[in-house]
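User: I'm curious whether this sequence folds into something compact or stays loose and floppy. Could you predict its structure so I can see for myself?
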Amino acid sequence: MYRSKTYLAIIPARGGSKRLPKKNLLKFHNKPLIAWSIEAGVKSKYIDKVIVSSDNDKILNVSKDYGSNIIKRPKKFSNDKSKIFHTIKHVLDREKKYDYVVLLQPTSPLRNYKHIDEAIKFLNTKKADAIISVREVNHNPLWCNVLPVNKSLVNFIKKKTKGMRSQDLKKFYKINGAIYICKVDKFLKEKGFFLKRSIYAFIMNRASSIDIDDNFDFMFASFLKKNKMK
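Assistant: Here's the prediction. I'll summarize afterward.
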């Protein structure tokens, strides 16, 4: 609870994963990957309850061992085409007493409880209905473009961008997948976190923003964690 408002953290974790099989249970520095997000939610000063939603019994059992509440997700919300809205609504239909829902994806193991608490305080400071975490992009998209079939670079970079130093270009940010927070009623009404108004970006550093999608991401996150722990 923070300033009389309650926060429910939901960690969605399907059993299936094509790019990195069984990734939620892979050992990441001696703990299952999902454990890092559970512990971040449990250690948060402001999260009132942490729930893991999964279709996989092993994930649910491991999640319970690490201190999370669990909800078995129906198969209709557990395939590759399932939308996260339906997964979260399935939980919210059973947990009706919370003011805010906090989505913590298990693929962000370097996001910790301090980030969560800072995000909640930021949300309160902005008097926002929602916040979503972002990070600065590695490479400015103004230096990017699609290539034609013949690979020509004519007009690849816009005229006003040519000759500019990279440090003089405007900063661009991307969603990092680590933290999503939204008022429950707004989330249900607009069917998602990306509200039409009163939504702000919570900026995180690049090292804490790693989002594991494949084996390269997993190895890179392991490297960052190892060197961060020294």
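Summary: The domain at 7-136+174-229 is CATH 3.90.550.10 (Spore Coat Polysaccharide Biosynthesis Protein SpsA; Chain A). The radius of gyration is 19 Å.
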